[in-house]
Amino acid sequence: MYSFHTKHNITALCTGLLLWLTAPLTQAGFRFDPQDCITLPAPDTALFQATQRFQDQVGNDFWHAPGRLESLIQQLAALTADGLDPQHYHITDLREVLGFRNTWGSLNDCDAELASFAYLSALADLGYGRPADTEADATWYSPQLGDRRSVDNLLALAGGGNQPVSTTFDQTRPALPRYQNLRQAYQHAREALPARWPTLDTGPTLAPGDRTAEVRMLRQRLQAEGYADLTSTTDPDYFDNALAEAVRAFQRRHYLTADGRVGDNTRAQLNVQPQHRLAQIRANLERMRRLAADLEQTMLLVDIAAARIEYYRQGELAWSGRAQVGQPLRETPRLKSLITHVTVNPSWTIPTTIFVEDKLPLIQQDPGYLEDRNISVFNYRGDRLDAADVDWNNPRGILLRQAPGPGNALGKVVIRFSNPFAVYLHDTPSSWLFNTNSRFYSSGCVRVEDAMSLAETLIGDAPTRYRKQFEELRASGESHNVHLPRSVPVLLAYWTAEADSDGHLMFRPDAYDIDAPLIADDPLLQPAMVSADHTH
Asked: In three state form, how does the secondary structure of 37-72 look?
């Protein structure tokens, strides 16, 4: 019995002593076993390879330098201002690593590697944007453009570790005005927006001259977002001119028809809660980071959500105009490619989807439909067929082609670039649609207002002989390709929030419903707000 108690007490004493000795180690995040190290991505990823090469360049002592690890943690924490989640970059683990280093004066090799990985990962996401989380938000890139998140490019962001960590982050953060303006507006919104604001119940359109309790709610809602001082009126239930002007200001900032009336579309935008707006801004800060990485000094930019086009020459805006883009069920794809040539006086081979869903019912109703629109029928060998010989109730093995000329769906010119979606920019006879506010009409291609002017601008940057060839072939009335001497980058991008230089936020309707999954997956969105907003 004595022997048992003696051994038991000694064991307890030793255990207590061990716990006492190792308490500081535990508090400092000491890793007793190499298996406790954070698992990094698979070795075949560019980020892992870049981390390994960076470690080889700077050595494990890099993060021992006074203030360097502290600066990394500070910069990671500051990424919240960019709409990024510092937890994605192991900030909690790094704080434990820092505590251990401050206690024991050393770092494990795997902790130094973790710091380097977090450093390069954060720089990559800040400089290039995070890879799209959903297929709907992904962008297709021409293979000719290369991989921007290559090992060499990722290493270049870190600059070999030859400058302060804070300087590297500042230089990596996009300088694009669209990004800086939205970032500034996001920081202000985080501080200024309330947790919630009033919502409007479903009901009839509210218009100037109305006097209802719902008008008072509308007044409170606009006041909460700072549109104007609307509470000083003696009759808050009356829809006066000041309130109508505030509604028009709201509508302009949400790409709605600015008529000063509150119908279903305006009501729906008014009812979007602040937390969702913040999440929408974060999603668009991500898109702006990708946009900044994709932009080049000379390029054509298609802003899908706003249905607008901008052509930049050496960083200066050289041409801009309105567009018509894909319907919600026939979206214009997000992509980056190279414009190689234009087609003057184009013919139009009607895509299968348009033939089956749009044209075939019209042909069945009107036997003269094809002839009236200068459309011919061909088999897959290219032989022309007599339309009267086709069984239009069960057409097989045929295609339709519209000849060049007045009424051709592609107009007078097409601007072409390689992509797997068979889309391009083109002229259109449907010019009246450019005067509408929401221009989502096409089957995926981009219709361009005054497309010939844009083509002339692109050709105008080429030597004289190309411009002369373009004019001669255009005048011929026949379909011809005119190749550019140098390819021009083209980017079809989608974003639904932006801000001007004064920090005023503007939101576009999310016609393609791409924001919803991004917002739902936002780790910074308060769960309570998600369930609450789904009730409206």
From this structure: CCCCCCCCCHHHHHHHHHHHHHCHHHHHCCCHHHHH
